[in-house]
Amino acid sequence: MNPVAIRDSYDVAIIGAGPAGLAAATLCAKGGLSTVLFDEQASVGGQIFRAIEETPVTDKRVLGASYWRGMDLTRAFRSSGAQYVPEATVWSLTPEREIGVSLHGGSVLTAARRVVICTGALERPFPIPGWTLPGVMSAGAAQILLKSAGLLPAGRTVLAGCGPLLWLIAWQYLNAGAQLSAILDTTPAGNRARALPHLLPFLFSGYFRDGMKLLRAVKREAPVIADITSLRAIGDDRVTHVEYRRGNGAAQRLAVDNLFLHQGVAPNVNLPMAVGIKHRWSDEQLCWVPVLDAYGNASIDGIAIAGDGAGIAGAEAAEWRGRLAAMAAARALGRSVPDPEETHVRDELARCLRGRPFLDALYRPARIFRQPSGDTVVCRCEETTASQIIDAIALGCPGPNQMKVFLRCGMGPCQGRLCGLTVTELIAEHRGLSPQEVGYYRLRPPVKPITVGELAALPKTDAALYAVTRM
Ligand SMILES: Cc1cc2nc3c(=O)[nH]c(=O)nc-3n(C[C@H](O)[C@H](O)[C@H](O)COP(=O)(O)OP(=O)(O)OC[C@H]3O[C@@H](n4cnc5c(N)ncnc54)[C@H](O)[C@@H]3O)c2cc1C
User: Ligand 1: does its nearest atom lie under 6 Å from the Cβ of 103?
Assistant: First the structure.
């Protein structure tokens, strides 16, 4: 493996090579700042532009224009002069902006005068009975297999859930020639009324035209069953059926080999929360969002957040947020970035955000699919069930961190990524509090698993730190 020279310090370190990180790194480097971009993936692109430089899906009609738009951003980044470090997992960031990076099985420490966290979003947990069965996975994970390996599911495939990404993945699958037995749409009927007040700005946002075209195309080719109010994955050693109800109707079953679930995305809070950045509960997006200023600067000096990690707004907004954060970083370091003008960046960002309130309201996932009950597994790492959590609340467990002590949920390899929102909402519901009052897991580094060996191999003193020849 080619050695990667990680410097002791940089002007700007960017974490995450999705649209936000690529845009921010390009602008910082163009402004003459020493800039490094770390990403845990093997190639640039983040979630939306995943594997864009080497995807086997070369027929551009399959993934669509919104995917291939990433080529310009990637080329601009590649020629910007910024240092790119792939397969680099940032597991620690301190308020003093010291960064712990795991790279090829070893860890290094570096530092930066400004840090922009662009770690994006994660799919929202979708805890239904049987969601841990083999053959059941998130629709986003299925899309990753398509983008990075050109893989399509074999056999009877059902998509279930709600949100723009579910429809995009269905459309990409159909373009790729996959058969979909059904799409079980869990968008609550009542959401349409809830979204109506936000319709006008949505009509003038780019989402409307593209979204309608995509929805019509999918509904022409795949059977869509709407108003799904309950879902259950059934099977012994793998999923064989999905059981669902429409409205108050009787339970129905579909035979399946693959069940792909999706009910929206939420900011990836692990690194920002572990460094101590202030977050608040967003009832519009049903998740935790960082408290940021107009440039994305966070509650800790010298650290900013851009992209979907700053609140869900989509790929184009992520780019413009990345540029704003880069402008602020350059200014703080006494530099300016060549272009674009700040007013233009803000106009573009405002255009991208115009349709968001409508989408958030229309695709607000139903409570039943966010707050499970009974034996449904909530914490997949520790196999903690909803009833265990609800019993612990009844026993007086006040919050998520005490729940860790009671039941170990949130203490596994994913560090609460797949159960945190569910645990917060269940406690809020059963204690009659708001999620803001209940809070979230206290997150600490390492935010991603590293070996004890990596930790032990780290220099113990500053002198040692600067004496070590970097890997
Ligand atoms: C699975 C999935 C698929 C999606 N597909 C689409 C799509 O096809 N179209 C669309 O419009 N939107 C899609 N989205 C929504 C997506 O959030 C945004 O559209 C867009 O990608 C957000 O850009 P971003 O720059 O904020 O972050 P992202 O694109 O999410 O990029 C963040 C990057 O940071 C990396 N990272 C995270 N933590 C660390 C760490 N600790 N150390 C190092 N690297 C780290 C991630 O691996 C990722 O490469 C998807 C979201 C998910 C979760």
Answer: no
